[in-house]
Structure formats: C-alpha cells, structure tokens
# Entry
Amino acid sequence: MLGEEGTLPLIRYELITLFLTSLPGALGLGLRKIFFPRLLAKVGKNVVFGRNVSIRHGKKIEIGDNVIIDDNVLLDAKGVGNRGIRIGDNCMISRNSILSCKGGDIVFGQHCALGINSLVHAVEGSNVEIGNDVVIGAYSYFIGGGTYNSDQLDVPFKQQGAISRGGIKIANNVWVGSQVQLLDGVSIGTGCIIGSGAVVTKSLAEYTISAGVPAKVINTRQ
# Structure
C-alpha cells in the first residue's frame, strides 16, 4: 500500500490522509502541498494536490515541477519490480482520473494534459509511455495489457491468464480526442490527431489523422 515497510511510515500515511485528504479550501491545498510529498518518492516545486487524491505505493511515484493533481484522482503504482508512475513537469491530471499500475509503469513527459474521468492502466510487460506536449480528452482509456487468453472454452477467462502485447507508446505532440480507447500494443507517432470516440487497435504513423471504430487513417497533416 505504501511502497515501503515499517510502522512509522504507516502511521505517517494514516495521519496525513486522515486529516488532509478531504480538507477544503486554500488551507487544504496549502497543507497538502506541504505534507503529501512525504508520501511520494519525489515531488518537484509548485505541485498542487486537489481534494480526495488517493495515493497507493507512493514511494514509486515521482512528480515534476508545476504539476496539478486534481480532485478525486487515484495514483496507484502497485507491483513488484516496476518503477511505478512518473509525471513530468507542467502536467495536468484532471479530476476523477485513474493512473493504475499492476506491475507495469506509467510515464508522462512534460506539458501533458489528461482529461477528466480518464483511465491509464499498465500491467507487467505492458508499460504506458506518453511523450511531451500530449493532450488527452475526457473519458479516455489507455489499456496497457489485461487481454485474457480465450482458447479454453471450459475454463474461466481469469484462470487462463493474460497476454501482454508490449504496452502503449505515444510520441510527442499528439492530440487525443475525448472517449478514445487505446489498446495494448499500439504506438502513436509524432503529431497525430485521434478523433473523439475512436478505438485504436493498430499503430498510427506520424502526422496522421484517424477516427472510427476501429480507428482508420482518414487524412494526414502533411
């Protein structure tokens, strides 16, 4: 839960989360700015933590300068042997969003914005890597891993195990519309635009514009 062992870290975590997580107003913002970094591996300057931010395995979470973690965000870096979550400078993780590791890593570059109610999920062997200047619309789902085997008809999916297809990689300066789903194993090239509601099942070359279910290239910015 904490990313470190010991009774004192547990007491510190419980006290900070109990008294400060839901504290409203400027007082809450100010106190979380002071005390929440003690729950994390590394936090830069001018980082804002909104209300009801949940931190799990915080000692595997690194946050750069001038980052906003909005209300009701979950940062969960669980796993054994993974590096966890890294968020670069000048990023915005909007409210109600979830960054969830299950043995994998999630990396945001600099100047990125993740829209409200979005999910970024990374399992072991399927990291999610996001470059610089990436804009992601609301209600987007980036699913690195979690595809179950389905060969055996008489065995439940969860008991058949999951398949890793190598994770998700997004290059610099990509614009992802709202309600977009990126599935495990896709790479998005530099300068791409992905239309709202698209389901991306295959990699996209740089500077392409895609849309649809499944997503298809409909134009190019070149």
